[in-house]
Design goal:
Blueprint: E1 9-10, E2 16-18, E3 21-26, E4 36-42, E5 46-49, E6 59-64, E7 73-82, E8 85-91, E9 93-97, E10 103-111, E11 115-121, E12 147-149, H1 157-165, E13 168-174, E14 180-187, E15 195-198, E16 208-214, E17 222-231, E18 234-240, E19 242-246, E20 252-260, E21 264-271
Antiparallel strand pairs: 1-19, 2-3, 3-4, 4-11, 5-10, 6-9, 6-11, 7-8, 7-10, 9-12, 13-14, 14-21, 15-20, 16-19, 16-21, 17-18, 17-20
Length: 280
């Protein structure tokens, strides 16, 4: 790697284990990132967040099972409370918590097989708001406003056909009404070598996180694939679990998947996104 943009490629091991949870990459490892981000593997029941809290920015939480034959299954059970309403699920899901909305506790009630979680928000620091700034939802409370399960659909039909042919499973896509955009997918070993996933350099009006994660909780930093990605025309290649931070309006890509030894996870996060679009 060259050094100009290496600070935006984050793959430093963290490996902090708490109550059976293996904490992975965090935005703490990159002071350049204007984006809060944490990731972890859950191996046994635990309390993720013991208290009700609210933040001054939108938060996106994702909980992903690792049974490739039953991809909607979390392989465990999760309890997530939003504004005093408890949501219990055993499915892979994406949960948006709007800014200043109280949420918690968050609990992992059961783990049948290790599953992966991450959360992110458009802030450098995760500092709770005081209770006088909390905002309760208006009208009838409905979980479908906040929770999205795997839908496997995308508006770009041509892209989806290419991905289906080349070994990608699209699981969760959501823009949550223009508040937060997130997309998650797996790439399988059937992906051909030197597969061009994003062919053209482009930029966005918002910062973006591009995340490449191992699916092996026992070897979480070995991606099981080799990725090539350009940032401002400089090429970077990596084979470790990596989070890439693309600042707003900074050109990035092409993105190529050079080889795949085992399935890996790829997901993107973009805050304050009215519509997913890009400028060449």
């Amino acid at each position: 790697m060259t050094n100009h943009f290496e600070k935006y490629f984050i793959n430093a091991p963290r490996k902090m284990r708490v109550n059976g949870t293996l904490a992975m990459i965090s935005s703490d490892e990159n002071p350049q990132m204007g984006f809060f981000f944490e990731s972890a593997w859950h191996r046994e029941p635990c309390v993720v967040e013991p208290e009700e809290k609210a933040y001054a920015f939108d938060m996106l939480y994702v909980f992903v099972g690792q049974d490739f034959e039953n991809q909607n299954e979390l392989c465990g059970e999760l309890s997530f409370t939003i504004a005093g309403h408890e949501y219990v699920t055993d499915k892979t899901c994406m949960i948006l918590v709007p800014k200043n909305t109280p949420h918690g506790p968050i609990r992992v009630n059961r783990v049948d097989r290790p599953f992966f979680t991450y959360c992110g928000g458009a802030s450098k620091e995760r500092v709770p708001e005081s209770r006088d700034r909390w905002v309760m939802p208006e009208g009838e409370f409905r979980f479908e406003r906040y929770v999205l399960h795997g839908n496997g659909e995308d508006n770009n039909e041509a892209e989806q056909e290419v991905l289906r042919l080349h070994g990608s499973d699209n699981k969760i896509i959501g823009d949550f009404g223009g508040v937060f955009y997130g997309k998650f997918r797996w790439f399988r070993v059937t992906t051909p070598k030197d597969f061009v996933f994003a062919a053209e350099s482009h930029s966005h009006g918002q910062p973006e996180l591009l995340n490449f994660y191992s699916t092996d909780p026992d070897d979480p930093y070995h991606l099981g694939a080799t990725i090539s990605m350009e940032m401002m025309g400089e090429r970077y290649e990596f084979d470790r679990t990596t989070t890439v931070f693309a600042p707003a309006n900074q050109p990035h890509c092409p993105l190529r998947i050079m080889s795949v030894e085992r399935p890996f996870m790829f997901f993107t996060l973009m805050p304050d996104c009215k519509v997913y679009s890009f400028d060449k």
